[in-house]
Specification:
By secondary structure, this protein is mostly helical. It contains 9 helices and no strands. Helix 3 packs antiparallel against helix 8, helix 4 crosses helix 9 and helix 7 packs across helix 8. It is globular, with a radius of gyration of 18 Å. It starts with a helix and ends with a helix.
């Protein structure tokens, strides 16, 4: 991985943090951990533990996927399947499937199940100091991916499968993305309460627009993969 690839992955992670998928949960939980009168040292510890957890978790995910999922790069089938999934993720961002009751109910049920699982885990560690809850939050957010957050991470997972020479390299790809995705959290943690609220509000306002742009990008890239591998 060269510096340009690493920087691109880091920036993709940082930019996609503003999507509304898990942003509300992260901000609410961080506010609970930090309270109203936290010191910058406490905020730095929370941000560091969250960043460490997300980076390590994505690294492990990348290594496991590259080790356990065989991909024949000489075949066009993986690229075609990837294109179809990207198109579906992109369309879902625009609510195309909302009109189809069965699909919409399935997506909603899956999203609710993921949200409930995350909340249960986080409640169990909520009173255990500062480091453990924030570390757990980073792990849970990285693993318990709903449809929206899965759409964000999916392109990076595919990149790790199709471009990584070794499982370690695949893990490194996802780790750099995870580091970028956690970076805004570290910033939020060291800000004082008022500044954190203002920053979070700005991210939430921009998040919906960003999700649409990401969805459009996924759709276009999916079409490109289908076009280049079917024609």
């Amino acid at each position: 991985m060269n510096l340009i690839e690493a920087f691109s992955l880091f920036m993709y992670g940082a930019i996609t943090f503003a999507s509304p998928c898990s942003l509300g949960l992260i901000i609410a939980y961080l506010s609970f951990i930090l309270g109203a009168d936290n010191t910058r040292e406490e905020g730095a510890l929370v941000g560091a533990s969250f960043t460490l957890a997300m980076t390590l978790t994505f690294f492990i995910i990348g290594v496991l996927i590259a080790s356990l999922v065989p991909v024949n790069l000489s075949s066009k089938i993986p690229y075609i399947l990837m294109g179809i999934m990207l198109i579906l993720f992109g369309l879902n961002t625009y609510g195309v499937f909302d009109r189809y009751q069965l699909i919409n109910d399935s997506i909603s049920a899956f999203d609710n199940a993921v949200s409930q699982s995350r909340t249960k885990v986080l409640k169990k560690v909520a009173s255990k100091g500062i480091f453990l809850p924030s570390f757990t939050l980073g792990v849970v957010i990285s693993i318990a991916l709903g449809p929206c957050s899965l759409a964000i991470v999916f392109p990076v997972i595919m990149a790790s499968l199709f471009t990584a020479a070794t499982p370690f390299h695949a893990g490194l790809i996802l780790a750099v993305f995870g580091l970028g995705h956690a970076a805004p959290v570290a910033v939020l943690c060291v800000l004082v309460t008022q500044a954190r609220t203002m920053f979070a509000s700005t991210l939430i306002k921009r998040g919906e627009i960003l999700s649409k742009l990401i969805g459009a990008g996924l759709f276009v890239f999916g079409l490109y993969l289908l076009y280049s591998n079917l024609l």
